[in-house]
Amino acid sequence: MVSIYGCCAVCKCYIRAKQHRCATPNKIEMGDNKTETKSKREAFLSRMKEKHPDVDFDDEDARYGQFTDDLDALESENGAMRDREGKLTTMFNSHPQAAAMMVDWMDGGDPVVTLVKRFGPELSEALQDPEKQEQLAAAQKDYLERVAKEKELEAQYQENLSASLTELDKVQEELGLTDEKADEALKLIIKIANDAIMGIFTRESLEMVLKAINYDTDVAAADYEGEVRGKNTKITEKLRQKGAGDGVPVLGGKSGGALKTQPVDDIFSQAAMAR
Asked: What is the pTM (predicted TM-score) of this model?
């Protein structure tokens, strides 16, 4: 049995060790280099600042607003993924051969060979079944139309892409943008487009678009305000210069001095001056 003194000694050692840990700075020393470790909160905020450099995370409302937007986007993506997984699960449960074909395909198998391997008898029967000839003909027609449409869209995409890259080169040269800055702008546009396809509209994207929409109006208002301010400054300066000294005495003013009267040129005044 441990004595009361032994218990006290253990407690004192534990308290001293705890105080030592609390007093020790949260740093890892490696020779002469001292690397300060970040708390989980600091590390998380650092990652968020790198992901959203335009957000002021020192502002509590902006910080939690961005957290909410990211959480909503994550839940939306997870919901879409769960929906797709649920449909695949239902399909594979109703058609185990389709699941086996997908597994073979994922492992590098040839799709056509895998199709024949897993649906050989059914495929042969379907090709020889008169009742399915019409369905197969319609499927073949849809396939040919889809391929033609894909080729048309691909050609249009390449044409649009070539024109877009030419326009981007002009903008980059006019604005003096670096390749890194131009790539960053393109990545942001692609991200917004991908989010829109997935039904994701973040606060950051909406604020960015609203700023772009109001840009011309804000610039025009700022120019007008600057023009009015400049005219008012000129008018004030002219009034100040005119009041400072234009050779006109101010009647009744203290700074103008007393008005000097000229003597009247008559006989009485001459007689007075002679005396």
From this structure: 0.34
Q: β-strands 33-36, 27-30: how paired?
A: antiparallel
- Residues contacting 259, CB < 8 A, separation 6+: 249
- Residue 174: both structure tokens together: 């006019």
Specify the pLDDT at position 234: 64
CA neighbor of 97 nearest in space, from 81, 83, 116, 80: 116
Q: SS3 of 30, please?
A: strand
Distance CA 70, CA 76 (A): 10
Measured CA to CA, the distance from residue 209 to residue 202 in angstroms comes to 11
DSSP secondary structure code for residue 53 in this structure: T
DSSP code for 32: T
**Torsions phi, psi of 24, nearest 5?**
-75, 125
114 vs 94: CA distance, rounded Å: 19
Q: Cα–Cα–Cα angle for 45, 29, 57, nearest 5°?
A: 10
Per-residue pLDDT tens digits for 26-64? 444 455 555 668 889 888 888 888 889 888 988 989 889
Question: For the chain, how many residues are written?
Answer: 275
Indicate the residue type of 40: K
Q: What's the token pair of residue 110?
A: 């040839």
Q: Quote the CA–CA distance of 134 and 142 in Å, as a whole number.
A: 12
Distance, CA of 176 to CA of 173 (rounded, Å): 5
- What value does the CA radius of gyration of the chain take, rounded to a whole number of Å? 42
Instruction: Note whether 120 and 126 are within 8 A (CB).
Output: no
Q: What long-range pairs does 242-249 form, CB within 8 A, spacing at least 24? A: none
